[in-house]
Amino acid sequence: MFKKFFQRAPELKSAREIGLMREAGKVVSEALNLCREKCRPGVRTIEINQAVEALFNRYGAISLFKGYAGPKVPFPAVTCISVNEQVVHGIPGNREIRDGDLVKIDTACKLNGWCADAAITVQVGAVRPERRRLVEVGWQVLQIAIDELPKRRWWSEIASRMQRFAESAGFSVVDAYVGHGIGRIMHESPQVPNYVGRDTKKFDFRLEPGLVLAVEPMVNMGKADTRVLGDHWTVITKDGLPSVHVEHTLALTPNGVEIITRDEAMAPPVSATPAPALPA
Questions:
Q1: What phi and psi values does residue 38 have, to the nearest 5 degrees?
Q2: With bands split at pLDDT 50, 70 and 90, how would you rate the model's confidence at 202?
Q3: pLDDT of residue 99
Q4: CA 246 to CA 232: how far, in whole Å?
Q5: pLDDT at residue number 227
Q6: How far is CA 261 from CA 41, 77, 136, 160, in A?
Q7: Which of 19, 154, 156, 170 has a CA between 20 and 30 Å from the CA of residue 124?
């Protein structure tokens, strides 16, 4: 989401409410699996969006993206589909997917009053090794959040580790967009950055059972700088180098972390050359 820090207490969820969010998460996971299957050379991004919209309609799920108010115009689709140098918020259209593309697909829905949000990066066909490496590191950065949530007291401790890991691999973390709390609406308090800066320290939040967060690192091959295209939505890297975006909705419970949008097909790829380890 757009970075707009504000200070409100996170809205903690009960076990029952997390269970209801899990049902929305299943629909989001199924939608992203469908996207993965359809993401082939020659397929237009609008065709993928149409398939997700049909799936949401079949379940009676409400898209959280379509009609979402923006700075100038509402978002027109149920998915954000961003290709290569496009970071987030890409509008599906007649663009055809090509061999070697990195396709970021983000979607969210509300089912029976509760929300879930997730994103994947799909590697299409013969992807160059440096791009494959970028995708692997993006998933590893998200995995740091999953692993560390039960162990740390403050979110900034995790965000720092996420940023250091990406940068130690030679990449950069986008700081213009952040994750968010989620529940009855898509964007709840708190804001969930993937890096640490002056604002993140100021608006840090304590980690406690009942937190449900949409954690969504965006990792760039080059610099972190971005700009928005003339459609008022699509965010691209300023240097034109590719970017990766992955996301899960995560619930912190007394028993650890539950991945609300879990699906085996969305598991991080195995790397033959792991990113460097960081000190505890």
A1: -85, -10
A2: confident
A3: 98
A4: 22
A5: 98
A6: 27, 20, 19, 24
A7: 170
Contacting residues for 16 by C-beta, under 8 A, at least 6 apart: none
Domains and CATH numbers, the chain: 16-266 (3.90.230.10)
> What is the DSSP pairing of strand 218-220 with strand 172-173?
antiparallel
Going by C-beta distance under 8 Å and a sequence separation of 6 or more, which residues neighbour residue 5?
Answer: 191, 199, 200, 202, 203
Token readout for 228 is: 């928005």
Q: What is the pTM of this model?
A: 0.92
Sheet holding 86-88, edge to edge: 86-88, 235-237, 226-228
Contact 25, 261 (CB under 8 A): yes
State the residue for tokens 């419970």: 253
Q: Within 10 A of 201 (CB to CB), how many other CB atoms are there? A: 12
Residue 4's pLDDT is what?
54
Largest Cα separation within the chain, whole Å, is 47
- The three-state DSSP-derived secondary structure of the chain is CECCCCCCCCCCCCHHHHHHHHHHHHHHHHHHHHHHHHCCCCCEHHHHHHHHHHHHHHHCCEECCCCCCCCCCCCCCCEEEEECCEEECCCCCCCECCCCCEEEEEEEEEECCEEEEEEEEEECCCCCHHHHHHHHHHHHHHHHHHHHCCCCCEHHHHHHHHHHHHHHCCCEECCCECEEECCCCCCEEEEECCCCCHHHHHCCCECCCCCEEEECCEEECCCCCEEECCCCCCEEECCCCCEEECEEEEEEECCEEEECCCCHHHCCCCCCCCCCCCCC
Q: Cα–Cα distance between 33 and 196 in angstroms, integer?
A: 32
